Amino acid sequence: MSHFLCKLRPPRPTFLSDMTSDEALVMRRHREYWTPRVEIGAVIAMGPVADPAGGYGVAIIEARSQAALEAMLAADPAILSKRGFSYETFPMPAIAVRPSLPLSPIDSVTP
To answer: Is residue 105 part of a domain?
Structure first.
């Protein structure tokens, strides 16, 4: 298996703060598409990045090959929406991942 850093570029730098209701629906479908892959461990981590120069999404994905990764990315509802989203991908030749840890009682308390 190979690991990749994937950067989802939105249609404009201000997207995270000014997405329309239609774009929010696309983002909901995007999240629903990726969530099962997080749950099975194919996606190590994912989420939006609030970069002052312009927000974007990032994910670390484990895939059998570059072709398998590209197939997953091409099926992303954000890409299929044809609203100007695009991915940049970067192979990660070595990766260290901490094991999953159970939540302690203190971790489940919200301040």
So the answer is: no
57-94: per-residue pLDDT in tens? 999 999 999 999 999 999 999 999 999 999 999 999 99
Confidence of residue 4 (pLDDT cuts 50, 70, 90): very high
Which of 78, 91, 90 minimizes the C-alpha distance to 33?
78
Q: How much is the pTM?
A: 0.85
Number of other residues whose CB lies within 10 A of the CB of residue 6:
20
Q: Which residues pair with 90 in a beta bridge?
A: 5
Which residues span the domain enclosing 31? 2-55+65-92
Rg (CA), the chain: 15
How many domains, in total, are found in the chain? 1
Output the domain CATH number for residue 34. Answer: 3.30.70
